[in-house]
Amino acid sequence: MDDYPLLNLFWTMLWFFLWIMWLFLLFRVIMDIFRSDDLGGWAKAGWLIVTLVLPFVGVLVYVIARGKSMGTRDAKDAKERDAAFKAYVRDAAGTSDAHGSPKGSHVEDLSKLADLKDKGAITEEEYQRAKTKLLV
Question: Are 113 and 104 in contact (CB under 8 A)?
């Protein structure tokens, strides 16, 4: 430990951290190239070649040229994932019907059925079938 001072350790850790951050940015740009809908196949291939052959310049130019659309795609994807998650939670919790509108409770549905039966809109047999369907 005497031959490796604390300042050298600090610089080594800093460079390692920057290298890891660079790799994250490089992979992020490559992922964005492939998921971009507004680029054609040749444009994607060109950006990929530039980022792999000249990684520092290619990534810097890509972020400058397409950084705003990259952020827009991120926000759009986050909204879509959020909506899909909320739909899944609603479906799993049973708080919405197939169309996404909130379901009423079984008590409300049974009272509506009883009112329909009392008014004569449905027969006793239809009432029993609907009631069994609700309770099962």
Answer: no
What are the angstrom distances between the C-alpha of 8 and each of 1, 3, 4, 22?
Answer: 11, 10, 6, 21
Distance between CA atoms of residues 48 and 45, nearest Å: 5
pLDDT per residue over 78-128, tens digit each? 999 999 998 888 887 765 555 554 555 677 788 888 888 888 888 888 888
- Angle between helix axes 41-53 and 55-93 (nearest 10 degrees) is 120
Whether the Cβ atoms of residue 47 and residue 33 lie closer than 8 Å to each other: yes
Q: With 0.70 as the threshold, say if the pTM is over it.
A: no
* Cα distances (Å, whole numbers) of residue 35 to 25, 39, 69, 126: 15, 9, 12, 53
Q: Which residue has the tokens 């329909």?
A: 116
CA distances from 54 to 27, 45, 48, 96, 130 (A): 14, 14, 10, 52, 69
Amino acid, res. 55: P
Mean pLDDT over each residue of the chain, to the nearest integer? 85
User: 90 near 97, Cβ under 8 Å?
Assistant: no
